[in-house]
Specification:
Blueprint lengths: L14 E4 L4 E3 L2 E9 L2 E3 L2 E8 L4 E3 L2 E8 L2 E3 L2 E8 L4 E3 L2 E8 L4 E3 L2 E3 L12 H8 L1
Parallel strand pairs: 1-3, 2-4, 3-5, 4-6, 5-7, 6-8, 7-9, 8-10, 9-11, 10-12, 11-13
């Protein structure tokens, strides 16, 4: 009955949650939706990622949709990025769409995803990730 033209992340439909008292070291991968209120030291790959106000990520992030209320120290590669007023990002953002609320802090460069650039030299996001490293 209802349909959406937006691509939804694949996964089980369940939300994975990293609580505020949890620290994970190493790469974190989730094909569905994940909310991080704790700390991740390592790269994160997810369909949709919500970083809560108490959340902290030290590593690169690759996701379809990203909603940031916490702190990120690392580069972001995402189709859709929302930096909420409490967000603090120290790193570059490669994105398809970007929304920054007043009060959010961003220290880094912003660029468009290569497939959305009219005349981009880089056509593979993996190649772009390698270039940023």
């Amino acid at each position: 009955m209802f349909s959406s033209s937006k691509k939804q992340p694949q996964g089980s439909g369940l939300l994975s949650l990293i609580s505020p008292d949890t620290t994970i070291e190493g790469k974190l991968s989730c094909s569905g939706e994940i909310q991080i209120d704790g700390t991740v030291i390592g790269d994160v790959v997810a369909g949709k990622l919500v970083l809560g106000e108490s959340g902290r990520i030290e590593g690169s992030i690759q996701t379809e949709r990203l909603d940031v209320r916490g702190t990120i120290k690392g580069n972001i590669f995402s189709d859709e990025v929302n930096l909420r007023s409490s967000a603090n990002v120290n790193g570059d953002i490669v994105q398809g769409s970007l929304c920054i609320e007043p009060g959010a802090v961003l220290q880094g460069n912003i660029s468009r995803l290569p497939e959305l650039q009219p005349e981009g030299d880089v056509t593979d996001i993996g190649a772009l990730v390698q270039q940023q490293s």
